[in-house]
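Input:
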Amino acid sequence: MTSEPITDVCVRCLALSELTWALGKVPRLRDGGTESEDVDGDAGGSRESAEKAAALAAPLVPTAEGLEPHPGDLVRAVEGVGSVRAKKVEAQYRRWDAAMVIASGVESGLAGVCMCSARYPEALRHLSDPPPVLWVRGSWEPLDDGSDNAIAMVGTRRPTIVGREAARRIGAGIARSGGTVVSGMALGIDGAAHEGALSVGGTTIAVLAGGADRATPPSHGRLYDRILERGCVVAEMPPGRRPEKWSFPARNRLIAALSRATVVVEAPMRSGALITVEQAHDLGRDVFAVPGSLAVDTCEGTNRMLCDGALAVVDGGALVAQLGMNRAGERVAPAAEGPVADIHRALSRGALSIDELGIRTGGILGPGEIELALLDLELAGWIIRRSDGRYGVVDRWAA
Ligand SMILES: [Zn+2]
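Output:
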């Protein structure tokens, strides 16, 4: 199921996107066009280019007619970039042509959306440094669905067999319950999480550190193709760009932002996955960790997260229920009356088994009715079945 790629990018955002690539971070433009001090201590560029840069540094609105923003001009309006570096970037982009960048994207089956577009994913706007352009290959549906329906799964590239299997199972559980699995398509946990979602015909989004037009790593070419069939591959880097060392942690912020919650499956203490956790925290998103063996180094980071207050997760489907996710991204409130309301009220006072619920509700409800009500409540994310077989309300989300 692939919707028609529609490219909706303005030249200005495209130029900013190129500068993200050239400078290794999303450029911050100086305000108001005031020519700021020269960071490199050089005499600075010509008056003409300074004026052009000032005009370009105006707030992000569709550019005035006739003004063609170009990375080489725009770089002079970037905070913290002196004239020496600006000259280098100018030289690098002398032959840059926005139309050609868009054409090369379209040729590779990519559609791009810039921040000015209504199609730009809302969830990315929550970042302090949203990517000026997002390139997408595959179906737009999981992106249009919004972050409320998506869970990020991240972890080490060198997991144990147990960790890999855990990622696959949790990914499958999330997808089976209608959630979208977001990950980075890297070796190890990332790949296993995507595989899990795909194994049950679920939806998954891969966020790449290089251009979205090719698989990173190349050994995941088949996985890349399969993800395109069931979801999409996205990237902030322009088409054709190879990933750089800095673009991996930069990519992690997109994984966190596109997701309602982040699950770390297996990660050592110093790990890119833990950068994603920080990004998720900064965005106010929930963070979960899969408990691992104390004897395994690659579980040290995740176990530490649990000690520091992250919630444990062992089942993707239960996580989806716990988060109260459904296709609309909204929880259905339990009815005020009827068996569902009675059961919910009874459970609000403490966890109960089905038999205990029968007694507590005065024997009016049969086991069948109770089970049906429990199912409704569980699917809507109001209650959870505990390991002892009793049902309890999910108090964290019940407020
Ligand atoms: Zn734009």
